[in-house]
Amino acid sequence: MIDSPSLSQTAVGTPAELASVPWRWLLVIAAAPLVLLLAVAGRYGYHRDELYFIAAGHHLSWGYPDQPPFTPFLARLLTDVAPGSLLWLRTPSAISAAVVVIFTALTARELGASRAAQLLAAGSMAVAAFTLGSGHLLSTSTFALLTWTLLIWLVVRILRTGQDKLWLVAGVIAGWGLLDSDLMAFLMAGLVIGLAVAGPRRAFATPWLWIGGAIAAVLWSPYLVWQARHGWPQLDVSRSIAAGNSGTSEPRAAFIPFQFGLVSPWLAPIWVTGLVRLFRDRRVRWLRAIGWAYVFMVVAFIAKGGKPYYVAGMFPVLLAAGADPVLAWVRLGRGRLRRVLLVAAFVLSAPAILFAVPVVSLSALPHSGIVSANYDIGETVDWPEYVAEIAGVYQQVPQAAIITSNYGEAGAVDRYGAAYHLPNAYSGHNGFYYWGRPPDAVTTIVAVGQDEALLRRWFGECSLGTRLHNTHDVNNDEQGVHVWVCAQPRESWRLLWPRFRDIG
Length: 504
What we know:
This protein is mainly alpha-helical. The chain contains 24 helices and five strands.
């Protein structure tokens, strides 16, 4: 392996000599999660969010109450090309995970990492639980991780070399990220605050930074206009998440402990070393803004009740910063023992694959503890079976409208209902609320997962049709949900429909 010379921190803008990229081994490392993710892409079934994205893709818009338009647009494109193919739907996510691994190594190189350290950073990201979990599903989180990684790599390169025109490219990537997830705005704010606190403040003197920011703002603006016209429902979503109403919400006190599991508890010392290095190593003082950006976002997300994985996009640069010092530590003193400890950290991280992606059989899943550890795995199980049970109730009242309590149920009915001659579902949840209400002529509904007390208040007659049950006995959000048949609405749908609204 070839170690790189120290970077000159006194002449930022002068390209320093860097170690070459070990492309052969790097591509092997990046291919490992790609092959794994493609191999398991068709196992289990759609995630509730994927069913929602597919439905949203058939109602293309510049905005939705809970997200910008990129992921629904991509879902529409993928399902139009290969309808019903989970492998095709999830292939961009698997590719994104591999790209993140590659750019983790490239970020390490920008920090002066040796070839070995570049591979260590890439390998850590390749086995990270969040990389594999987000790479398995079509999700806004998947592309948030990708766009954050690309943007931070560009920022590191700009600060190292002084190639200020790259801020234009950064603006395009930031705009793409903003069209995928609002979280990109927090990264941008964190970077600005970091530069203001720790420098180099010369970045604010170049017009290219401001032009790049303007490009991002222009790309984001159609979504902001949509939000403004609809009363900023994203704020309602944020409040609901902070209140713990999302399946992946966590208490504020759990935010920092969860950081240690997003990569791997055994590999956490690498990124922690990287974070400490950004604040203490004078040789990377020029990049201290990245450390402050991470601190800012942790504080901001704890304050607003955000989810712990919201800052997962910072781990590529933190691993990149920590890889060289960790390898230096391994080579000192009892080198053999320390090498064994580093290898052991990777070996002990491997079982996380069982919890991140659908490797175990469905028959073994209920007793494996995986669903308790990874909520998202449970939400990919037996949607066709649930729709068949809903269809069994609907067939008793074939002129009814189907109204579900959440977008996963509604998306599943829309995806699988045609086989049972079901109409598209209605729901008051998030985007579905805006896509129409039942016609006034509808006097009977099949209500999935709705509150019984409210249904009896709104309708003159309600009876239990069935309870949803998956034969694999997986304890997910739909297991045991009541399906009601209600008739005789007490008010017109124009007045009744707003009461079904659930933005969160």
